[in-house]
Design brief:
Strand content: under 5%
Low-confidence stretches: 1-9
Mean pLDDT: 84
Order of helices and strands: HHHH
Structural class: mainly alpha
Distance between the termini: 12 Å
Radius of gyration: 13 Å
């Protein structure tokens, strides 16, 4: 699932988020290392790790640039939609 819950200029691909959550290098490519790691990962654990990483990212973004706080409500709404889609 792809969710844009951050500014477009700082947006990471869906594979980059998952690669980072799996401890892989983040090149954004579904290649020979990413595919088997994704296939063997517990989907619920991976989902939680990506969610946590995105929330930490948004927190750092707002902390580093207070002007970004104006967008926080929208970001959190999208993150809540993503959380509620978790099986």
């Amino acid at each position: 699932m792809l969710v844009r819950a951050m500014p477009t200029a700082l947006w990471r691909s869906t594979f980059e988020w998952r690669q980072a959550a799996l401890g892989l290098s983040t090149d954004g490519v579904l290649g020979p290392r990413t595919r088997p790691a994704l296939m063997s990962a517990d989907p619920a654990v991976l989902h939680r790790r990506v969610l946590a990483a995105r929330l930490r990212f948004l927190g750092r973004l707002i902390t580093q640039d207070r002007r970004q706080a104006a967008f926080a409500a929208g970001w959190m709404t999208r993150m809540a939609e993503w959380v509620s889609s978790t099986p």
